[in-house]
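Q: Here's a chain of 803 amino acids. Please give me its 3D structure as tokens.
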Amino acid sequence: MGDKQDAPTAAVVVAPDGVVSGWCEGGRLLLGWTAEETVGRPVADLLVDPPPGFPENHGIGSGSTGVVPLHHRDGSTVDAVVTAHPLHGADGRALGHVVTVQPWGRRPVIADRAFEQCPFALGVYDPELRFLWVNASACRVMAHSEEQVLGEKYRELFPELDDMAYTDQLSEVARTGEPARLITVFRPLGSNYANAWATSMWPVRDAAGRIRAVANWGFDMSAEYWARQRLLILNKASGGIGRTLDVIGTALELARTPVPGFADLVSVDLFDEVLRGEEPPSASAFTPGEAIALNRAAQHSAKEDTDRAPGPTPPVSHTPGSIAARCMATGTSAVELAAEPGQGGEWAFGPGLAADPAHWPPGNPLIDGSIAADGLTGRITVPLRARGALLGVVAFSRRDRPEAFTADDLILAEELTAKAAVAIDNARRYSRERTRALTLQRSLLPQGLPNQEAVEVASRYLPGGTGAEVGGDWFDVVPLSGARVALVVGDVVGHGLHASASMGRLRTAVRTLADIDLPPDELLTHLDDLVLHLASDLRPAGHFQPTGESGATCLYTVYDPVSRRFTLASAGHPLPLIISPDGTRTPVPAQPGPPLGIGGLPFEATELELPEGSLLALYTDGLVQSRERDVDEGIAELQRVLNHSATSLEALCDTVLDAMLPERRTDDAALLLARTHALDPHHVADWDIEPDPAQVPQARKFAVDQVDAWGLEEASFVTELVVSELVTNAIRYGEPPIRLRLIRDTSLICEVSDASNTAPHLRRARDFDEGGRGLLLVARLTQGWGTRHTTSGKTIWCAQALA
């Protein structure tokens, strides 16, 4: 195709009868016809479709103009702008018309040069996608000259692009006539970079509206496109890194986020102290020439599409002088490339200014052919630092793509690492605090359940998941006088150290109140008063109220194996489940009272008689309530899971936890299972005593005979002495009725009850005092003694250890 400035303009003289009477050289250049071939012929012979203004007799109307298809001598059609000018003689007589013919689309020469030199790639194709015209920029992109592509079909000239979206879209525009825009990403010939092109396509129509061609323009928007891709990766990192307060989980999130969009392999190495939640080593801990020992916390690969196998983190050693060791020592990142990007030492036609060496920071990149031996084309190593502390190192590697890392890629890697470093450090600090809270909480919970014969017990306590703080759930088993046992479970609302400390105070208070043998309802009343006092003592002068016991609940129960009576009272806590030996559920006719710390409201005690072998389940709401089910549904499920016939309560605890607790729990859960025992009636002896000092010898004889009958002759002397002292005190200071009871359990228990509420106490007798030594003797000769108040009086008891 010649220069556009050589495109001819033809002038034709047409006589009044529509016959060509004059023809110029421009007509020959434009249409190929000579003067000999056209002069004397009707002008209409040159027209494909005569436009309006050309009459039926082939005359030409004055002043008519328009785009007209003309017959070329070679049989093709030439679109031209035809304008008719009337021609008159000196006398005004009409001599015909002068018709000017210009190629359609005629532009000034400078406009043609503007299109030729446009930095955008411009092209025009016929409906079959044959090249009609391209500019110089398009030739550079295609690596073909204009002469090589004109008249060729796009699909045949570039078969590798035949099924690409760009080619398909060109065909679609030619078929439908609908313009289109799209972005295509491809790697130009001779480039190591994938380029992104923005392209606009539109149909080209003639005067009759028929699609005669398809045109397009495109420009390289790689810099903007890859900047947007980096922004998308950062946006993904914002929602994908730091979702859990777990060091390993956060490291794995960092490894997964940039794969495969940015890197093919990411590894995260952390110090062992970071994994344990401890402070990372200081810079002074590194000895020059000594290898740096880390642990591979996470690794993710696009090729295998798998993560590092779960389990203990494998150790990784970075030798002195290695890139990783150098980065950790200096606190700066390093980029390694297997070879110079591009060819001949020049940077390839890449994503904009990102590939410009001037944009690299000092010292980067390092051309290191040794990484090619590992199958890598590039690697970015970034030290993992947060709040001035060095946590480890991260490596971003490419091995399955020819694109070399750019300066902008280094910025992205450092941004990802900085964000992850803060999240990992947060997880480390949380892990440390959670470990401390768990240590505190477990130190406050019973380390082992006490030995007693009233019930067989098993328990479980599980803190919330790693994403949850430590809560305030607790349980306890407290042996009481008379072979009885107290089963306790409670929950402090809230999480954290405050909840754990509050739980410890409440558990200590419950044990203290249990030692004075208060009934369940009275114990909760005293506990409620204590919570109110603690809350007022802890209230600060400022505006902030610390989490305390005001949101606590407690269930206190007492089981007596002699009478098989089970007494309970609840302060806002779920009632226990009771399964009879035959498997039926025993209803508990009680309602939980108000939570602790409300004050002014009573607590009610409920008493039931249980058959021997009943199964008791005491629990906290963390066991039965979750996001998937409410409390009532959880209790029904717990009822279904409990198996009264289970031979092992320990195994039953595990079964319950497996069935009830979700994999990702958010609250603590405590479970206390107990199977009741009944004391053999032959191991209990009762005797009513008249309030007469003469009854003391008979009481001693009754006790000695019963102890001998049990085969406990070695305990006869002490039993005779303590019975004499306790019965004498009851007759002298108490009120009838008076009752003596002996119980053979793990210890030999002696109880004397009367109707008086006056409690005795130890005192030091003077040398000449006639009394005051009885209780002192009882305390010295027995394992323990105490007073238990009842609704009808009090009971003085003591217990002797049995071999």
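Q: Can you summarize the key feature?
A: Residues 284 and 389 are 12 Å apart (CA to CA).
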